[in-house]
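WARN retry 2 of 3 for item q-0093 after timeout on previous attempt; input resubmitted unchanged.
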Amino acid sequence: MKKLGFVLAVAVIALALAGSALAQNCGESRVAQSGGDCSFYFVTYFSNNGGSAAKNPLAEPDATVRIINDGETGGNLWADFYVFDDSEELSECCSCVVTPDGLLSESVTKELTANPLSGPIRQRGVIKVISDGDGDPTDPYPVAGLRGWATHVQKAASGYVLTEDALADANYSPYEAGALGPICSILLQLGSGYGSCTCTLEDHDF
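OK item q-0093 returned
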């Protein structure tokens, strides 16, 4: 019986710790969970984003990433962007504010891939987004509350077509948590202006 009591006590402590971690992930200001989720880390991709699009917008349509603040925290959140090329190299990073119930619209060609640290504009790659409570992409503080969607430029038999889907929830592993911020910091320090993406004003659509 004593062993059973010990096991139950350990289980209760484990559940309490898990609940505490979940509350932190959902934002410290959360009072009750009312049907949403605690996601704060998202991924998507971009494709057919060549330099020709930057010089000639008619060559390929521009993809977009749109982020909303669902208003749960009652305050500003920041979308931390980490843009990787298809060789797994971080080429740009930045943090863009999103006010409660606000909408942020980011051009992949003009804002997220136009200022790489080195080399040409990336044609395809990966975009990672952290819902951040303090707006520092070099040291993010994940807080749930942002939701996002992205359009993708797909080649068709004649020209290009756009598709759109929600940003995919991703696992914020210890490796990601320990790598994204420091790599972004090094990128911005080495870049001297390069390697930093830019943000659209919320009441504008680039």
